[in-house]
C-alpha cells in the first residue's frame, strides 16, 4: 500500500474543505441579517441536508482523523489522486463563483429573501443549479482523494439524496415567485450539466 499517495489525498481533501468553509462563512453570516419572505424549508429538505452533511463532512472527517472505518480501504493511485484534486479544487472554484453571483440571494435551504432577484448570469447562464454542480464535483473529487470505498462514495450518496429531494421543490418555489421570468429561464437552461441535463 502506498501510504504517501493516500496521505496526500487526505491532506488535499482537508485543504479543500477549509477553503470551502472560508468561502461559505461570510454568506451564512449575511444571510442571518437578510429577511426571509418565503420559507419552504421542510422535513424532507432537512433530511437531505443531513445526508449531504454526513456524507461530505462527518464521515470523511472521522475517516481522516481516525482511519475509521478500515473496511473499504483500497490502494490509492497517484493518477486517481491527481484527478480527484483537479475535480475537488475546480468544484471549490465553481462553489466560490456561484456564491459571488448569488450574493444576497443565497440561502442554505428553500427560501426567498427580501428584494430577491433572479440571477441568470455567469455560471447561471447555462445551468440553473451550478452550486449543485460544484457539490457533485466535490463529491466525485472526494471519491478519488480518499482511498476507502465507503467514505469515498458517502459524499456522492449524501449529496445525490439532497439534490433529488430538493430540485423539483426549488424550481417550483422559483416559478411561484418569478412566474414567467423563471419559466423562460428554464426553457433556455439545463439543470446541472450544460446542454445535457
Ligand atoms: C443553496 S442555494 C442553490 C442555488 C442553485 N440551486 C444552485 O445550485 O446554484 C438555494 C437558494 O438559492 C436561491 N436561488 C436558486 N436559484 C436562483 C437563481 N437563479 N437566482 C436567484 N436565487 C436563486 C433560492 O432562494 C434557493 O433557496
UniProtKB/TrEMBL annotation:
- Which residue windows are transmembrane per the record? 12-27, 47-65, 77-95, 135-165
Membrane topology, from the record: Multi-pass membrane protein
GO CC annotations, alphabetized: membrane
State the coiled-coil residue ranges: none
The keyword Methyltransferase appears for this protein: yes
What UniProt keywords apply to this chain's record, in alphabetical order?
Answer: Membrane, Methyltransferase, Transferase, Transmembrane, Transmembrane helix
Alphabetized GO MF terms: protein C-terminal S-isoprenylcysteine carboxyl O-methyltransferase activity
Q: Name one GO biological process term.
A: methylation
| Cell location | Membrane
Q: What's the protein here called?
A: Protein-S-isoprenylcysteine O-methyltransferase Ste14
Amino acid at each position: 500500500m502506498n501510504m504517501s499517495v493516500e496521505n496526500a489525498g487526505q491532506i488535499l481533501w482537508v485543504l479543500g474543505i477549509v477553503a470551502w468553509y472560508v468561502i461559505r462563512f461570510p454568506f451564512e453570516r449575511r444571510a442571518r441579517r437578510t429577511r426571509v419572505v418565503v420559507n419552504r424549508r421542510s422535513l424532507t429538505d432537512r433530511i437531505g441536508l443531513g445526508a449531504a452533511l454526513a456524507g461530505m463532512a462527518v464521515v470523511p472527517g472521522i475517516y481522516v482523523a481516525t482511519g475509521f472505518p478500515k473496511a473499504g480501504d483500497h490502494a490509492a493511485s497517484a493518477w486517481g489522486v491527481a484527478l480527484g484534486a483537479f475535480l475537488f479544487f475546480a468544484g471549490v472554484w465553481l462553489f466560490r463563483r456561484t456564491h459571488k453571483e448569488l450574493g444576497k440571494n443565497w440561502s442554505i435551504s428553500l427560501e426567498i429573501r427580501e428584494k430577491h432577484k433572479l440571477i441568470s448570469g455567469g455560471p447561471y447562464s447555462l445551468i440553473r443549479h451550478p452550486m449543485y454542480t460544484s457539490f457533485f464535483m466535490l463529491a466525485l473529487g472526494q471519491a478519488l482523494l480518499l482511498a476507502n470505498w465507503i467514505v469515498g462514495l458517502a459524499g456522492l450518496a449524501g449529496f445525490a439524496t439532497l439534490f433529488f429531494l430538493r430540485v423539483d421543490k426549488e424550481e417550483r418555489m422559483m416559478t411561484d415567485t418569478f412566474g414567467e421570468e423563471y419559466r423562460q429561464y428554464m426553457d433556455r437552461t439545463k439543470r446541472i450539466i450544460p446542454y445535457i441535463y
